[in-house]
């Protein structure tokens, strides 16, 4: 079947060719499985799973991962990887609580400035110096985590955020029964959709992930785009850290351990290829929710330890990668998929 395409490479009609079906499977796989898991969970556990309180809990827990995974999507689509976001998330929480003693403005501005600088360092070393993203972000992972422990006196000092602070009121506010971080994550997701799919910058991210050499020949600012995506990733992780600190009224250097791997898993489960050039934020959202729903289902069982969450997530991610590999052999479409 012949189909039209937009300038960004998005299909305008349903493509029934093998390539088109493979691309559709990548896009729709995570949402389909999410709906299936929700139905199974509701049938198995009833209101304890599908009840309003549990839905609110899953939404709040997912909001932090969604924020981090949005930035990770930009990074991976551009052909990179960011292992530092879990540590940046923890550092942001500690700096938020530390800065709260001087008011809400400092509590917000300090972590954004420091974490943004870490993202800028990542971007410059990767985009300008052309050092491998894995090495650079592994180094900043260790740096940010070490800085978080140093700021908290090796974890012995827990900074508390005053209850009467505006930051606390905003972070713990509720609207329609949902906590404020849920709405922040939703706003970030909506903005990310526009940027990634409706702007020249977003199209540049896809082009660079598909082929950096071709992007350079096209005159795209490859190094600059890479710098921006790593700064964006760090800032979104910082926002997540600010929100979790506001929710708990404290900053702990131990939070976020393994969160970078969870974010990568959410992005890959959502259909984004680790090789870059192909991916959607809607898939990332479905992947993040799917991980959190599965973890919640394991908690519903009650007799299984939390370690089973890691086992199930690992197995599930392996299956997704295997499926993606098979689909990649059948479909080789490039360009920006529809959101």
Biggest β-sheet: count, sense, barrel? 2 strands, antiparallel
Helix content: over 70%
Strand content: under 5%
Please give the alpha-carbon distance between the first and last residues.
Answer: 22 Å
Please write the CATH class name.
Answer: Mainly Alpha
Mean pLDDT: 86
Gross CATH architecture: Orthogonal Bundle
Radius of gyration based on Cα positions: 20 Å
Query: Could you list the spans in which at least 5 consecutive residues all have pLDDT below 50?
Result: 1-13, 332-338
Q: Would you list the SSEs in sequence order as H and E?
A: HHHHHHEHEEHHHHEHHH
Strand order of the largest sheet: 1-4
Kindly give the count of domains. Answer: 1
CATH topology: ABC transporter involved in vitamin B12 uptake, BtuC
Determine the number of helices (DSSP H or I, runs of at least 4 residues): 14
Oligomeric assembly: single chain
Overall spatial form: globular
Number of strands: 4
Give an overview of the whole structure.
It is a single chain. This protein has 339 residues and is mainly alpha-helical. It has one domain (29-330): ABC transporter involved in vitamin B12 uptake, BtuC (Orthogonal Bundle). The chain has helices at 18-45, 47-50, 52-77, 85-99, 104-128, 133-151, 166-171, 180-198, 200-210, 212-217, 222-248, 259-269, 281-301, 307-330; strands at 159-160, 174-175, 178-179, 250-251. The protein has a two-stranded antiparallel sheet. The protein has a two-stranded antiparallel ribbon with strand order 2-3. The longest helix is centred in the N-terminal third of the chain and has 28 residues, at 18-45. The chain starts with 17 loop residues before the first helix and ends in a 9-residue tail after the last helix. 47% of the residues are buried. Residues 1-13 and 332-338 have low confidence and may be disordered.
């Amino acid at each position: 079947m012949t189909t039209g395409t937009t300038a960004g490479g998005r299909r305008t009609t349903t493509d029934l060719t093998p390539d088109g079906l493979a691309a559709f499977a990548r896009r729709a796989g995570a949402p389909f499985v999410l709906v299936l898991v929700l139905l199974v969970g509701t049938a198995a556990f009833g209101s304890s799973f599908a009840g309003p309180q549990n839905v609110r809990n899953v939404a709040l827990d997912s909001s932090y991962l969604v924020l981090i995974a949005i930035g990770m999507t930009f990074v991976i689509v551009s052909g990179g990887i960011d292992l530092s976001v879990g540590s940046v998330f923890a550092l942001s929480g500690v700096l938020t609580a530390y800065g709260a003693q001087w008011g809400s403005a400092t509590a917000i501005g300090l972590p954004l400035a420091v974490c943004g600088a870490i993202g800028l360092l990542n971007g410059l070393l990767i985009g300008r110096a052309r050092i491998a993203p894995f090495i650079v972000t592994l180094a900043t992972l260790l740096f940010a985590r070490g800085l978080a422990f140093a700021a908290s006196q090796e974890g012995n000092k827990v900074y508390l955020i005053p209850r009467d602070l505006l930051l606390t009121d905003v972070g713990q506010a509720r609207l329609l029964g949902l906590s404020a971080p849920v709405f922040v994550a939703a706003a970030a997701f909506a903005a990310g959709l526009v940027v990634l799919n409706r702007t020249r910058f977003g199209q540049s991210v896809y082009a660079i992930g598909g082929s950096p050499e071709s992007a350079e020949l096209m005159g795209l600012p490859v190094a600059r785009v890479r710098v921006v995506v790593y700064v964006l990733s760090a800032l979104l992780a910082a926002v997540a850290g600010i929100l979790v600190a506001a929710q708990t009224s404290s900053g702990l250097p131990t939070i976020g351990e393994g969160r970078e791997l969870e974010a990568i898993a959410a992005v890959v489960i959502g259909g984004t290829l680790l090789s870059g050039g192909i991916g959607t934020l809607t898939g990332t959202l479905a992947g993040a929710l799917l991980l959190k729903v599965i973890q919640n289902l394991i908690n519903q069982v009650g007799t299984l330890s939390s370690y089973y969450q890691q086992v199930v997530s690992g197995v599930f991610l392996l299956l997704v990668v295997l499926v993606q590999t098979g689909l990649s052999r059948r479909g080789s479409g490039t360009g920006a998929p529809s959101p």
